[in-house]
Amino acid sequence: MDNGRLASPWNERLSPMTLHLNIASTEALAFEPARRVLRLWPAVGGAQAQLSVTIRRTSERKDAPPYQVSAAMLIGKNSSRDRRLLTHLTAAHLTNPSHVATELTLTGFVSHEQLRVAESLREGAEHIWVTLQISATCVDGDPAQLVGGTGELGFDLPSGEWAQELEGVDVGSYVEILVPLTSDNEHATAVRRLRKARELIRDNHLEEALGETRKAVEAIRAADGTPATVRQARSKSPRDRDQRERWAFLVEDIFSLLSGAAHDDPGTTEHFVWTREDVLALVTATAGLLNRL
Q1: Is the pTM of this model over 0.70?
Q2: Alpha-carbon span 288 to 194, nearest angstrom
């Protein structure tokens, strides 16, 4: 995804759909996605999700009642299948829309695990399809009675906007491994390399993510002296190697595997193919090795 889209992701959104929600024969509401739809704020164990839509009445009415609006937020790869419930959203207050569209914010909670599953469903696609199952109710009529309606509003959410919000709540793609921050410049650089790899995975740049991961392993090799340890232990039978030597061989094997993404050697690495699962396994393994330091 290019930097322009990341800098102003909502400008790239496809033309939004409009939901016309019929409440009564003379009363209807119109909903559309707002200019910036999604915001995520850090919360305990997850994130507070704020979704913004615009709402307006389709006709003028002097005695119009206020509405309570809520929605179920579903996500998927497209509008027709694989839609999964992410969260339930409610407006904090009643809203009394006019003939001119005004913005309404719906709020809910999403756990870290739900966000990781949502990211895995996206699988590097450039958009996420969002469906809002909107419900609007009010007390109206004479005699007064509860009336309302339900309907679906669907739209594409660019992955640039999604990724920016995930970064704001610091959610890992699938697995959280806590790597302590350090004042050691070499180790801090390795941590930044892994963060960059995570961002690249989100944008489906898999080989580039492997390149950043390989640089992180280089720092691990230097800090732990694994090349020298492997050279000294190579003459031993694998069963005779001590624990430190076995860890060193693991580091060197991961480095060798990652080097296959960096070089196209005729007859060997030029035919290597990397799946998303391969990349996630190597990034996760590297995070664990870095955590040992």
Answers
A1: no
A2: 11
Picking from 220, 201, 192, 202, the residue whose alpha carbon sits closest to that of residue 286 is: 220
At 134, is the secondary structure helix, strand, or coil?
A: strand
Look at residue 155 and give its three-state secondary structure: strand
| Calpha distance 236→211 (Å, rounded) | 31
CB 31 within 8 A of CB 91: no
For residue 205, how far is the Cα from the chain centroid? Answer: 15
Name the residue among 55, 68, 71, 64 with its Cα closest to residue 27.
64
Residue type (1 letter), 171:
V
pLDDT in tens, the chain (293 residues): 333 323 333 333 334 589 999 887 778 899 999 999 999 999 988 899 999 999 999 888 778 889 999 999 999 887 776 789 999 999 999 999 998 999 999 999 999 889 888 887 877 777 889 999 999 999 887 888 888 899 999 999 988 888 888 878 865 444 444 555 555 666 788 888 988 888 888 788 898 999 999 999 999 999 999 999 999 999 999 999 999 999 999 999 999 999 888 776 666 677 788 888 899 899 989 988 988 87
Q: How far from each other are the two terminal CA atoms of the chain, in whole angstroms?
A: 33
